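Before relying on records like the one below, remember that each one covers exactly one chain. Contacts with other chains, cofactors or solvent are not represented anywhere in the record.
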Amino acid sequence: MKRQNGFTLIELVVVIVILGILAVTAAPKFMNLQGDARHASLQGLKGALQGASGIVYGKAAIKGIESSTSGAVSSGVGTGTVKTSLGYPTATTDGIVAALASADEWNEKVSGSKSIIFTFKNYDVDSIPNKCYVTYTQPSTAGESPTISIPADACK
């Protein structure tokens, strides 16, 4: 009897077909990496907004204006200032945008009198796709903190 060395053509074709089926079923799991990366970037922006508002509140407390509905503290960059209300940055370009060091990497739009929306630089703020944005809402009463939120299904 003769020993068989290697694989037959049929065996190789079957293995290739099985690998193709596995690739087709597994590929969708890895296709949404861009959405996940955008969502992670929004989480980073949310953290930066929380940090910036906390630092501004600390500066306002040192200055004794944490209860004032209008004030300003140093932005820490040159002679810039950050407008505050109740110690936290206002939801304006002179407020939270001035406090945020990486503000030039994001588009922002004032939304109402006490809210501002941040989104990616390449997105139009009037038609943000897939709810990819962070909302900063300044506090309306003393003792409150600003509300910083991301939609639950952002960038999906």
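The chain has a mean pLDDT of 88.
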